[in-house]
Amino acid sequence: MAKRDVPLRWDRKMQQRLARGEAAALGELYDRFASLVHGLAHRVLGDERAADRITRDVFAHVWEHPDAYDPRQGPLRTWVATLTHRLAVQRLRATETAALARGGPGTTEELESKVRHASVAARADYIVQSMPAPLRAALELAYFQRRDYRQTAADLGVTEDEARRRLRLGLQLLSTARDAGAPETPGAPPGYGGAA
């Protein structure tokens, strides 16, 4: 419990600093989470400029509404990722809807499918980035280097049972991305554990 409380203590302290209007706190938060925010936004939108805009929007929102974060609901990192995801999905949906209205190719069903796919992909990226390093290393060896569990065990210097356990747990975590990938319901509170 003490280990888990340390990050939450940092999260509460950061929120308090932001609420006091400390520009240095925003800079520290940006340094810590900018690559996460930009990466998630880019994963959803597939566009560098749009991801840059979402990144600015997310940090502007955090700066203007620091009290919107509730430390009792989870880590600040998850809240920032949820906010990023929500804004990026809204931007994607608005952009694609506008293109359809102008007579662009596709249908509303294809739009929703695209939004769902982008949402699941972004969620999967976040899960992989957030999982403990041993699980992430095992998955990366198995996926990117096409290693089986025996080769993964040898590469990581662990037993075959441990390699299987890490791969199984990593895949179980990753499988939750699809569960959370349903399109966001307008007006619903943002949550990274439920609707996308």
Automatic annotation (TrEMBL):
Gene3D superfamilies in the record: 1.10.1740.10, Winged helix-like DNA-binding domain superfamily/Winged helix DNA-binding domain
Keywords linked to the UniProt accession: Sigma factor, Transcription, Transcription regulation
Record bears the keyword Transcription regulation: yes
RNA polymerase sigma-70 region domain segment(s): 29-94
InterPro entries: RNA_pol_sigma-70-like (IPR039425), RNA_pol_sigma-70_dom (IPR014284), RNA_pol_sigma70_r2 (IPR007627), RNA_pol_sigma70_r4_t2 (IPR013249), RNA_pol_sigma_r2 (IPR013325), RNA_pol_sigma_r3/r4-like (IPR013324), WH-like_DNA-bd_sf (IPR036388)
Pfam family membership, one: Sigma70_r4_2
Superkingdom per UniProt: Bacteria
UniProt entry tagged with the keyword Transcription regulation: yes
Stretch list, region Disordered: 177-196
Domain RNA polymerase sigma factor 70 region 4 type as annotated: residue spans: 127-173
Protein family (similarity comment): Belongs to the sigma-70 factor family. ECF subfamily.
This protein's name: Sigma-70 family RNA polymerase sigma factor
Native source organism of the sequence: Streptomyces thinghirensis
Lineage: Bacteria, Bacillati, Actinomycetota, Actinomycetes, Kitasatosporales
